[in-house]
Design brief:
The chain is an alpha+beta fold. The chain has 24 helices and 19 strands. The chain has three domains: 244 residues, no CATH class; 335 residues, no CATH class; 126 residues, Four Helix Bundle (Hemerythrin (Met), subunit A).
Length: 806
């Protein structure tokens, strides 16, 4: 007897089984969980590798490894936490707060703790401040930063949160389900690589322009991320290892070959960061020269211990001449005189020193500087090429700035009495005259001269007419000024010598029957003459241990009983000299000022032979002593009859710092609000995309899927066919619905959605766009009913949940 059955009696095979028919068998539960945990933990070294470009910023491999190997696993373990008795997001949020604001400061600010384990109030306060300010410190402070200014809090914060997000996204889907029920690859595990890419991008932006082997590290990271994603998606299969290795090698060769053809243009924030201090706000350092001599000639201003004998001390370097004074350049271009930046525990050597590749290195030193009453300037006396500056009394590291291009330092506040600091570095030995004579012009860039004296070309031609090499011309200018000039400060009892070093005073010096002046005029004149001959030059103001003739003397340095040395610098030791950049020699010092014992006779007639040749006539007598205008005009605005009226600060300048501090300290509030808005916006975009994209059948399927996703996000896990899922959702989420006459209950609407979705999937009847619109109208009603039936706290957790979203 033949038995026949209808199609109702023979249920169609589940589409899930059809799609997975040719897929590998699922792994056992324990093995799947172990492999999933292993794949998540593999993100820890990947994230640490992504932050490798911050290593040159800190300059401390041990510190970088310590913070990185604690922060990255901490974030990963927090993402893997689970509890049966409390909601997991609450536990994770609490652990993240403890790790960020307690554990992080204990590790990165360990010097403020008790027994290196227990945090103090100072630890917690500095940790809170460094959480937001450490990122700015990475950009503002010149590397290597080390453990200064809580800078390692930036690395801790970056790795903690990106590791947490990476592990959280990696655990969205179980390891044994790399594909969706419809057969498509589930992209959720791939999202775990996005936080690692964020770490890599942030490290590059906050790093240095040269980085730490960026090409090799970048390629290694991309290859490892590709292998991790392939492993996580079960795309790596055993067999044919030679073919796979060959494919990988060819892919890397093509990728590396293409990147090598592209010119490197590394975007680094520190190269575009403008230091908060503006050296141009101070008057010209050289214009203060006469006040040192007049007011503190015999007063001890600076005492230096353990500085090699005969070493000059530099205070300020000026490379811009505007016709009135020598001053610092307007812009903070690297290598120029205004590029003062905060430094950490050490000063890294400059990579751009104007061709200074063969500078003769002298002995190393570690000297203690003490500032005395009467100094009162912001220019910090230093010596040689500093490798570190450690503040002592009355000096804070936050106020300390250093210019690696000029080897000079600056304090944001004037130096008071008994200020101490220690400078450690290397002295630069001046090359011999033969090396200077055979040298060529250096490659250093200096600002253009504004309003140079008209007497400059003729004077330069007379001094260097017989010289052909740049180094020989520099020596000729120095020799001519030093031997033919006369010395006078122009003080009471001295031969008359006006102060100032502008174009009129330099023309007066060069065109007089006899040159008379001090180092203020001679240094300015030589620097201008060198510029006229095409030599990069700059003026240095500093202190030298002088003898009676004004020359550098080692006898000024005395021996201490403890074996050290001490040298006292008085106001009369202030000196100005010139540095000229020569190829292979760097910035070479020149001292054009005549000996101080070479003073002119008061009966000597120094009237210029033809005063009409001067560009401008002498100005009216000023208050004694006469001097050029010391103010810079690059930051002034002409208005009315007052050409030096300074423009008032803008609205942003007045209130910008206050707004920034308010935003920084309130960031936990608006940060959480932005995160909530971002999640809601993302879910709204996904819902709208499911409602509008694809054919009518696909939109209906997506509508049922969004109902199921909402159930998953609320904590329910519906399984099985659509009817089984509808039964579970209706029982657990719509069980409180009340029946109203003439209207369908929420369960009826849910069952109708299930029936329409089955018809759209298995029926051959064409589904119209109107059917899809009606289906989504019913879907929105069911979703709204599900949310309204939940308790308020669970409703918000459902709205913000990312579970089963993609």
């Amino acid at each position: 007897m033949r038995t026949t059955t209808t199609w109702q009696a023979q249920p169609a095979p589940s589409p899930v089984h059809v799609l997975w028919r040719n897929q590998p068998m699922p792994l056992e539960g324990s093995r799947s969980r172990a492999l999933g945990l292993l794949s998540t933990l593999a993100l820890v070294p990947l994230n640490l590798l992504a932050a490798i470009q911050l290593l040159p910023v800190y300059g401390d491999l041990a510190g970088w490894l310590l913070v990185g190997l604690l922060a990255s696993p901490a974030g990963t373990l927090i993402a893997l936490t689970w509890s049966r008795h409390a909601p997991r997001p609450c536990i994770q949020a609490g652990l993240l707060v403890l790790a960020q604001f307690v554990l992080g400061p204990i590790i990165t600010l360990n010097g403020t703790t008790i027994l290196h384990l227990l945090p103090t109030t100072q630890t917690l306060i500095q940790g809170w401040t460094a959480t937001f300010g450490s990122f700015k410190a990475l950009v503002a402070i010149d590397p290597p930063l080390g453990w200064e200014a809580g800078g390692f809090m930036a690395l801790w914060t970056l790795l903690l949160w990106t590791s947490f997000l990476a592990a959280f996204l990696a655990r969205i889907r179980p390891y044994d389900r790399p594909r969706r029920p419809d057969g498509r690859i589930d992209p959720a595990p791939i999202l775990a690589t996005l936080p690692i890419l964020i770490t890599m991008s942030a490290s590059a932006l906050l790093g240095t322009s040269h980085g730490w082997h960026p090409e090799i590290m970048g390629c290694c990271l991309w290859v490892l991320l590709l292998l991790w994603a392939s492993w996580r998606l079960h795309l790596i299969q055993s067999g044919r290892p030679l073919a796979k290795a060959l494919t990988l090698v060819l892919t890397l060769g093509i990728a590396l070959g293409g990147t090598l053809q592209v010119p490197l243009d590394r975007l680094v924030l520190r190269d575009r960061y403008q230091p908060p201090i503006d050296p141009c706000q101070f008057t010209s350092p050289l214009s203060d020269y006469r006040s040192y001599i007049k007011d503190h000639k015999d007063d001890t201003l600076v005492t230096v211990h353990n500085l090699p004998a005969g070493t000059p001390v530099r205070m300020a370097v000026m490379d811009r001449f505007d016709g009135k004074v020598w001053n610092l350049s307007d812009s903070a271009t690297p290598g120029q005189s205004s590029d003062y930046r905060r430094i950490g525990s050490a000063v890294s050597p400059s990579r751009d020193d104007g061709g200074d590749t063969n500078r003769t290195q002298g002995p190393t030193f570690k000297a203690l500087f003490t500032i005395h009453q009467g100094f009162g300037r912001s220019w910090l006396p230093t010596a040689g090429q500093a490798s570190s500056i450690n503040p002592g009394r009355n000096l804070s590291r936050e106020d300390l700035y250093y210019n690696k291009g000029t080897d000079s330092a600056l304090s944001a506040t004037p130096l008071g009495a008994e200020t101490t600091y220690t400078v450690q570095g290397t002295l630069n030995v001046r090359p011999d005259r033969e090396a200077i004579r055979n040298s060529q012009v250096g490659a250093a860039q200096v600002p253009q001269i504004s309003d140079p004296p008209d007497s400059l070309p003729q004077a330069a031609a007379l001094m260097t007419s017989l010289q052909d090499k740049p180094g020989t011309r520099a020596l000729a200018i120095e020799t001519r000024l030093h031997q033919d000039g006369w010395f006078s400060h122009g003080l009471e009892g001295d031969y008359p010598s006006p102060s100032g070093h502008g174009d009129y005073r330099v023309s007066q010096l060069l065109q007089a029957q006899a040159m008379v002046g001090d180092s203020e005029q001679y240094a300015s004149a030589m620097a201008l003459l060198a510029r006229q001959m095409g030599l990069p030059s700059r003026v240095v103001l500093g202190l030298i241990p002088k003898d009676k003739q004004g020359d550098i003397s080692k006898a000024r340095t005395r021996q201490d009983p403890d074996g050290g040395t001490t040298v006292d610098f008085r106001g009369g030791d202030v000196e100005a000299w010139v540095e000229i950049n020569l190829a292979g020699l760097g910035w070479v010092p020149f001292y054009p000022t005549p000996q101080e014992t070479k003073t002119p006779d008061k009966n000597l007639n120094l009237t210029p032979p033809n005063p009409k040749t001067l560009v401008r006539q002498p100005p009216p007598p000023l208050v004694d002593p006469p001097r050029d205008d010391q103010r810079t005009n690059g930051r002034t605005r002409v208005g009315g009859q007052d050409a030096d009226q300074t423009a008032g600060p803008s609205l942003w300048t007045r209130f910008g710092p206050l707004v920034g501090r308010v935003l920084a300290y309130s960031s936990p509030v608006w940060g959480v609000a932005l995160l909530v808005l971002a999640i809601l916006a993302l879910k709204a975009w996904i819902l709208n995309r499911a409602r509008t994209k694809g054919s009518a059948e696909e939109r209906i399927e997506q509508g049922w899927r969004q109902v199921g996703n909402l159930a998953w996000q609320s904590g329910l896990r519906p399984q099985g066919t659509r009817r089984e899922q509808a039964r579970t959702i209706g029982r657990d989420l719509l069980g409180q619905s009340t029946f109203k006459a003439g209207r369908d209950t929420d369960r009826d609407k849910l069952n109708r959605l299930c029936t329409l979705a089955d018809r759209a999937t298995f029926d051959n009847r064409r589904v119209s766009d109107q059917d899809a619109l009606e289906y989504w109208r019913l879907t929105d009603q069911v979703r709204r009913s599900i949310l309204e039936g939940l308790p308020r706290s669970r409703r918000w957790r459902t709205r913000l949940s990312l579970r089963h979203l993609f």
